[in-house]
Amino acid sequence: MNGFPKPIADLMEQFGRLPGVGPKTAQRLAFHVLSMSEEGLQSLIQTLATIKEKLTECPVCGMWTDEVPCAICADHERDHSMICLVGDTRDVVALERMQRYRGVYHVLGGVISPLDGIGPDQLHLRELLNRLVDEEVKELIIATDSTMEGEATAQYVAKLVHHFDALAVTRLGHGLPVGGDLEYADEMTLARAFEYRRPI
Question: Which domains does the chain show, CATH number per domain?
């Protein structure tokens, strides 16, 4: 038998559509599903079937949440005068892990990427501008990725909000990681390290 039975091949194809999942991983996942108990399989199916129903975008910040508003926007102990602008909910989770930032967030829902057909109109920029008008925001921290798309988005947002006189617009620093060796750093990382140097 050269190929897998069609149901297994179909399942492998579906797993293979997930980011970071290659053919071998898709095969392992498919056979893992086959080995699951009926109860475990039904639980997985139920979770997948209802995840979109149970989650919604926070009407304030745009983060995926199961409560409205999300827990961060509803937290009155956080500094609501400071907004950290990110591409998606995963970025919020990453920043929250450091347990140092006590402001709030605004999730764009992506970054400007003309090749992918994503322009400013597809992002939550209007909602950001409304927040800057309605709330007493003192600082907007732009924390998009340091990719070409992330940088283009950061520049676009900086120009978009430049007329808010009382608003400080900052960008997360990029450069050498803690414990990193210069000889292993790529040219872009080194260039950023020089660009964002500061006095000590």
Answer: 6-54 (1.10.8.420), 57-180+188-193 (3.40.1360.10)
pLDDT, one tens digit per residue, over 135-164 is 999 999 999 988 889 999 999 999 999 999
Confidence of residue 1 (pLDDT cuts 50, 70, 90): very low
- Determine the Cα–Cα distance for residues 37 and 40; give it in Å rounded to an integer: 5
Overall pTM > 0.85: no
Alpha-carbon distance values, 120 to 160, 170, 171 (Å)? 11, 20, 19
